[in-house]
Specification:
With 301 residues, the protein is an alpha/beta fold. Strand 3, helix 3 and strand 4 form a beta-alpha-beta unit. Helix 9 runs antiparallel to helix 10. The longest helix is centred in the first third of the chain and has 15 residues.
């Protein structure tokens, strides 16, 4: 099976809340060293919504050099300002990123023809690979498979989608409608637990957040899938299912994931951007206990 697990990386911040380039290098080295198939920066878990543009650009330039083509690097270039989205996308590609990923405009519910117009204009003006980011819980509406197919057939730089939906219905429809006509169109689930279902249905895997702190387990699952190792996939799925409990520890999952990364030995600060709140002592203990119960080594408390 053609399976990939890409990590949507958290963003390391220093004590003043600014992007910590050295800390992010540590994150990337841990992910690459543990076999991840790619890295996405400045996604939702990367706090794109609260990082100034100048710091985003500095991070992109640094990440391209740090990753150094060892794995594909995708950059979330989301912006409510269309011209800024175009400019930042082309900046990331010019720096050497392999692709950009863009969520559709949020806040207002955009009609289907408006969404189509947004992505068509983006595809025409962005001079490199582009991925859809479907996240209805944040935008208020879903990207239609038929729209994706229409645009992907017209614009060759549209390469795939991250489908962050809490069930497989949406992803299954995309696989059956878009990949049926465009087999090379990449379909990734946004929730870790759907990795196996995704690839068994003909998708490409997932871009899932818990791989930030258990990259060895995530990459092991992907390797088992590529080897058609059903027993290995089953074992990995059970581990992932148990670790998905981490999303229930706090309403704001970014600080929880970032703390788990720190607890598993990556030397970064646990700082997050406002209005996110750091985990409480009770939450930290729950994170630590979940990791221990799941057989994950906790090397920093």
């Amino acid at each position: 099976m053609n399976a990939k697990w890409i990590t949507p990386s958290v963003t390391a911040l220093d004590k003043e809340g600014h992007v910590d380039l050295e800390g992010n290098t540590k994150l990337y080295e841990n992910l690459i060293g543990n076999g991840m198939d790619g890295i996405l920066i400045l996604g939702s878990i990367g706090e794109f919504f609260a990082i100034p543009m100048e710091e985003k650009k500095a991070l992109v330039a640094h990440a391209v050099k740090a990753v150094n083509k060892r794995v594909p690097l995708i950059v979330g270039t989301n912006s409510m300002l269309f011209e800024e989205c175009v400019e930042f996308s082309n900046y990331a590609l010019d720096q050497g990123a392999d692709a950009v990923m863009v969520i559709a405009p949020f806040y207002f519910n955009i009609p289907d023809d408006g969404v189509e117009y947004f992505y068509s204009q983006l595809a025409e003006r962005v001079h490199g690979n582009l991925y859809f980011y479907n996240f209805p819980a944040r935008t208020g509406y879903a990207l239609k498979p038929e729209m994706m197919l229409k645009l992907a057939k017209k614009y060759k730089n549209i390469k795939g989608v991250k489908d962050t939906v809490g069930n497989m219905d949406s992803t299954r429809d995309i696989i059956q409608i878009v990949k049926k006509e465009l087999p090379d169109f990449e379909v990734y689930s946004g929730f870790d637990e759907f990795f196996g279902h995704n690839i068994l249905s003909g998708g490409n895997g997932c871009i899932g957040g818990i791989s930030n702190f258990i990259p060895n387990i995530a990459s092991g699952y992907a390797k088992a899938a590529r080897a058609d190792d059903l027993a290995g996939m089953c074992e990995s799925q059970r581990k992932i299912d148990n670790l998905m409990k981490i999303y229930g520890i706090g309403e704001q999952f970014v600080p929880i994931i970032k703390k788990a990364v720190q607890l598993t030995g990556v030397d970064i600060e646990e700082n997050v951007t406002a209005p996110l709140l750091p985990p409480t002592e009770t939450q930290i203990e729950k994170i630590r206990q979940l990791l221990v119960d799941s057989g994950v080594d906790v090397v920093k408390c």
